[in-house]
Amino acid sequence: MGKRRKIIERRMEIIEAIKKLDENVDLIIVEGKRDKYVLRKLGCKTNIIALGDAHKPLLTLMESLNTKYMGLRVAILTDFDEEGEEIGKKIEKMLEGSTLKVERTLKDRLKKAMLEENRRRIEELIGLLKEEI
């Protein structure tokens, strides 16, 4: 398989993973407003909360999300770098025992596809819209 074709397939996998997340969760939690912007540009229509825009302590935010989105499915899309992974684990721990259902399978699918593209931050996906293959 040619290099160009492999790149196209990896990028399509990223776009497909985002589409599946959009179809299967009720809320996506990201780190910052650029992450939210990129997901919107890639066609994500579901509710997205950017931690940087919340202006409240993380625990307070998680409690309010648990109340507002009671029983619904949530994806935690923090970056796949060390800091983002740490934040993601912290959020998951806070949501343990809550009514929210954390979606991990689709996030892991996106993570795998992004790492194959050497992308660790959600905002780096903007390149999918700008780069030539």
Task: Give the helix/strand layout.
Elements: H1 3-24, E1 27-30, H2 33-41, E2 47-50, H3 51-54, H4 58-68, E3 73-76, H5 82-95, E4 101-102, H6 105-116, H7 127-130
Parallel strand pairs: 1-2, 1-3, 3-4
Explain how this protein is built:
With 133 residues, the chain is of the alpha/beta class. The protein has one domain: Dna Topoisomerase Vi A Subunit, Chain: A, domain 2, CATH 3.40.1360. 57% of the residues lie in helices and 11% in strands. The chain contains seven helices and four strands, in the order αβαβααβαβαα. It has helices at 3-24, 33-41, 51-54, 58-68, 82-95, 105-116, 127-130; strands at 27-30, 47-50, 73-76, 101-102. Strands 2-1-3-4 form a four-stranded parallel β-sheet, sandwiched between helices. Helix 2 (33-41) links the parallel strand 1 and strand 2 (47-50). The longest helix has 22 residues, at 3-24. The model has no long low-confidence stretch (mean pLDDT 90).
Q: Top keywords for this entry?
A:
single chain, four-stranded parallel β-sheet, 133 residues, alpha/beta, Dna Topoisomerase Vi A Subunit, Chain: A, domain 2, 4 strands
Fraction in beta strands: 5-15%
Helix content: 55-70%
Cα-based radius of gyration, to the nearest Å: 15 Å
Strand order within the widest beta sheet: 2-1-3-4
The CATH architecture classification is 3-Layer(aba) Sandwich
Provide the number of structural domains. 1
